[in-house]
Automatic annotation (TrEMBL):
Principal subcellular localisation of the protein: cytoplasm
Main enzyme class: oxidoreductase
Record domain Enoyl reductase (ER): where: 10-295
Subcellular location: Cytoplasm
Xref: PROSITE patterns: QOR_ZETA_CRYSTAL
Keywords for the protein's UniProt record, in alphabetical order: Cytoplasm, NADP, Oxidoreductase, RNA-binding
The keyword NADP is assigned to this record: yes
Organism (species): Streptomyces chrestomyceticus
MF annotations from Gene Ontology: oxidoreductase activity
The protein's name in its UniProt record: NADP-dependent oxidoreductase
Self-association state and partner proteins as the record states: Homotetramer.
Signal peptide: none
CDD domains xref list: MDR_like_2
Amino acid sequence: MKKVSFSEFGGPDVLRLIDAEEPHAGPGQIRIAVRAAGVNPVDWRIREGQFQKVHPIELPAGVGLDASGVVDEVGAGVEGVRAGDRVFGEGASTYAEFAVLSAWARMPEHLTFEEAAGYPSVVETALRIIRQVGVRPGQTLLVSGASGGVGSAVLQIARDRGITVIGTAGAANQDYLRSLGAIATTYGEGWTERVRQLGHIDAALDLAGSGVIRELVGLTGDPQKVISIADLGAPEFGVRFSGVAGSVPDALIEAAALIERGKLHIPVEKTYTLAEAAAAHIDSHAGHTRGRRVIVV
C-alpha cells in the first residue's frame, strides 16, 4: 500500500510517499480503507520533533491521526461495527491507503468522507478545552485564532451551550466567524483594546500559538482562566498547555449528535493527494485556515 512516512525530523521535505506493508487491526481496533485523512497542526509538530521530550516516537514513522473510510477488518473484542460500515475516527499513520483506528463512530449519513475526516481530533480538542477552561452558559469566551478547525468547532459548541464567543482572526475571515455565531475582531496592533471594548472576558483559549499568552492573562485577569493548545511556553505564564486527549470515542459520539442536529459544520477549505502531503503541511503551518484541510486517498 501507499503511505506517507518520514525517517528524520525536519521540514516538510522529509515526507516521503512509500510502499509499505498493510497494517492489521489488533484487539479493540478496526482497520479501514482510508478515503480521506484530516490534516492537523499536531501532524507537522510531530514531524518537526516538537513533542519528542513529552511523547517520543520511533523513526521511521507514519503521519496522521484522523481519517474516514470503510471498515474492512475488525479486531478481537470489537462489537457494533462490521466490514463495509462507513466510519470516522482517530488512529495512527492515517496518511495511507489503509489505517488502523483505535476510536471511531459511524459517519452521519449526509457527510462526505472528506468532511468526516476533518472532525475527530478537532472536536475532541474543542470539547476538552471548553471543559478545562471552565466557561459556563451566560459567560463570554475569547478565542484567539478562531477560524481554523478547532476554532470552528469551539465557536459552534460554545454557542450551542449558551456561551457568548469573541473570536480573533484575519480580516478575510471576519464574516466566517460571524457565520458561526461569534463576535469577530481582527488580531494585530491594538487587538486587546478592541476586545476590551466588546465586553468582559471570563475565559480565553489560545489556538494559534501566536505569542499572545500574556495578553490573554491580562484580559481574563487570571492565568487559570486561559488554556493553550499551541504555545509550549504557556506554562511560563501560569497557563495550562492542553495536549493530552480525553475520551475520543465519547467526543465522536457527541460530534455525530451535533452534526445530526445541524449544530456543527466544519467546511473543508482545501484537499490534497497523498503525494501532496508536504504541501498540506506547508499550508497548515502558514495558518489562516478557514475550516479544515484534508488529504483524499
